[in-house]
Write a structure and sequence with these properties.
The chain is of the alpha/beta class. It is built from nine helices and twelve strands. The protein has two domains: about 5-125, Rossmann fold, CATH 3.40.50.2300; about 140-240, Orthogonal Bundle (Arc Repressor Mutant, subunit A), CATH 1.10.10. The chain has helices at about 15-25, 35-45, 65-70, 90-100, 110-125, 135-140, 170-180, 190-195, 205-220; strands at about 5-10, 30-35, 50-55, 80-85, 105, 145, 150, 155-160, 165, 185, 230, 235-240. The longest helix is centred in the middle third of the chain and has 15 residues, at about 110-125.
Length: about 240
């Protein structure tokens, strides 16, 4: 693992902060620690992390509020992968966390090895392959156009009329998976394999939640989508032309 990769751990439990600091440092990361929202913001201003491990139950602003704040930013913090930690493992907590823009969710108590695997998977998905100078100058080789949208793979952005729609890293990865396989029915299991990068629960609703978030950004009427269509009993189909037939 590249030692320059930086992880920000935000948790009000000093013992857990120190445990994760020691473990992640030993595996090659640079690790910053914060105990609440203000210290998280200060850490990000000092040095932008490559990923954030964020506790759900924090004093003052909780992890959901802070995730929503990060996703509302117009700068690069909007795309920093966020892994939510919570002592509560109920499905509703996972769903709300993902709806707020978290990229993954891990219930306490957890294995540090599993947390490491999830972090590596998140970071691997957002690392951008180097482009040639010509590609970087024109953007043409990295652009995918459909309807009024431009998916810029090099910059990991979705644009509409030159306006950045601020996709989270996980939302970008899902849309990229669709654009690379247009007009094909993709099962939820296949999409989970493409997106997760580690073992997943067969009852995982991550894909459905991501699709719902993408539809709110892509579709004029998310209840009657034309780009990302549900194929009952099979999965989802991306139609770049937006036709309903």
């Amino acid at each position: 693992m590249n030692p320059r990769l930086r992880i920000l751990v935000v948790d009000d439990d000093p013992a857990l902060r120190e445990l994760l600091f020691a473990y992640l440092t030993d595996t090659g990361f640079v690790v910053d620690l914060a105990q609440d929202g203000p210290s998280m913001r200060h850490a990000i201003e000092h040095a932008a992390p490559d990923a954030i491990v964020l506790d759900l139950m924090l004093p003052g602003e909780d992890g959901l509020m802070l995730t929503r704040e990060l996703r509302a930013q117009s700068d690069s913090t909007a795309t920093i992968p966020v892994l939510i930690l919570s002592a509560r493992g109920e499905e509703i907590d996972r769903v709300v966390g993902l709806e707020m823009g978290a990229d993954d969710y891990l219930a306490k108590p957890f294995s540090p090895r599993e947390l490491l695997a999830r972090l590596r998977a998140l970071i691997r998905r957002v690392q951008v392959a180097p482009t040639t100078l010509a590609q970087a100058a024109t953007g043409r080789d990295s652009d995918y156009r459909f309807g009024p949208f431009i998916l810029d793979s090099a910059a990991r952005r979705l644009l509409r009329d030159d306006f950045d729609l601020n996709l989270s890293g996980a939302e970008f990865d899902l849309l990229k998976a669709f654009t690379e396989r247009p007009n094909r029915v993709l099962s939820r299991n296949l999409l989970l394999d493409l997106l997760k990068g580690y073992d997943w629960d067969p009852n995982d609703r991550t894909v459905d939640i991501r699709v719902a978030r993408l539809r709110r950004k892509l579709e004029t009427d998310p209840g009657n989508p034309i780009y990302i269509r549900t194929v009952r009993g099979e999965g989802y189909l991306f139609n770049p032309r937006g036709a309903t037939t």
